[in-house]
Design a protein that fits this description.
The chain is an alpha/beta fold. The chain contains ten helices and ten strands. Helix content is 47%, strand content 17%. The protein binds 4-(N,N-dimethylamino)cinnamoyl-COA (DAK).
């Protein structure tokens, strides 16, 4: 499919979705969210991607939030449809079958922070800022921000960000466990792709099973979550890759995984 607001690329097992509206700092409008949703279906159905990366076009912003220019005329019905779409896209990212990495190359505000925290890992450039400034617009986060952030960094820190609407720099985001690591902007994509390639050397079925176990186990009590882990665990036994992993270790050689 042809996209106007995003760029989708594929290279050596890695798909990248670049939000491409630099004039409005990659703000998310309905069209952009629709395109992201279509791209996620396409990438999932093609089944050749092992790691998916989200980033923003330009050097200033990852995503500066939902597109504020659409807010003044938004009706309650329109707001309801917009939040359904946004939450659907964030849920799809969170439960996407392979790891999804946010390469945050600048401002990640409002919907931008919400997009980043729906991903499995977040790497940021030194000039990145995070924040949920919705209350400065007299609204609240609507793409899962009030829920995912407190699960990620704890209730008190999440409430500070939601209630103040303050922006925090990448370094502070790293200190509070929001960001995995920080790189100079020019190196961000190279470093993120290196991390993606490390993941791709591991058993592909195991990576999918590990993500499934962690995502679907997270919101359950420990007993149920461990049962989910067990089910994910046993699906790997008897696969060619599981046999190859053990054999390669015993034969002191690198494994050759096939994703079977
Ligand atoms: N939407 C639309 N345009 C935006 C934008 C945004 N979120 N952010 C920036 N822009 C545009 C600016 O208007 C400006 O356009 P021109 O004037 O050049 O035409 C251009 O991008 C460059 O921005 P600035 O001139 O402001 O650049 P600065 O370097 O001075 O400042 C900034 C950068 C990122 C600090 C600043 O642009 C900023 O504060 N932006 C807004 C951040 C923000 O408040 N984001 C929205 C958070 S609210 C909903 C569900 C969810 C949500 C909403 C509704 N429903 C269910 C209905 C989620 C809401 C949010 O995400």
């Amino acid at each position: 499919m042809e996209y106007k607001n995003i760029i989708v690329s594929f290279e050596e097992g890695i798909s990248t979705i670049t939000i491409n509206r630099p004039k409005s700092l990659n703000a998310l409008n309905v069209e952009t969210l629709n395109e992201i949703e279509c791209a996620l279906y396409e990438i999932k159905n093609e089944n050749k991607t092992q790691v998916l990366i989200f980033t923003g076009a330009g050097e200033k912003a990852f995503v500066a939030g939902a597109d504020i220019s659409t807010f003044p005329t938004l009706t309650p019905e329109g707001a309801s449809a917009f939040v359904d779409l946004g939450q659907r896209v964030m849920d799809m990212i969170e439960s996407f079958p392979v790891p999804v990495i946010a390469a945050v190359n600048g401002y990640a505000l409002g919907g931008g922070t919400e997009l980043a925290i729906a991903c499995d890992m977040i790497y940021a450039s030194e000039n990145a800022f995070f924040g949920l400034p919705e209350v400065t617009l007299a609204i609240i986060p609507g793409f899962g921000g009030t829920q995912r952030l407190q699960r990620l960094i704890g209730r008190h820190l999440a409430k500070e960000l939601v209630f103040t609407g303050d922006k925090i720099p990448a370094q502070r985001a790293k200190e509070i466990g929001l960001v995995n690591n920080i790189f100079p902007q020019a190196e961000l994509m190279v470093k993120v792709k290196e991390i993606a390639k490390t993941i791709m050397k591991r058993g592909p079925l195991a990576i999918r099973a590990a993500k499934r176990s962690m995502i679907f186990g997270m919101d359950h009590d420990l007993k149920t979550a461990n049962e989910i882990e067990k089910l994910c665990f046993i699906t790997l036994f008897g696969t060619e890759d599981q046999r190859e992993g053990a054999k390669a270790f015993l034969e002191k050689r690198a494994p050759q995984f096939k994703g079977k």
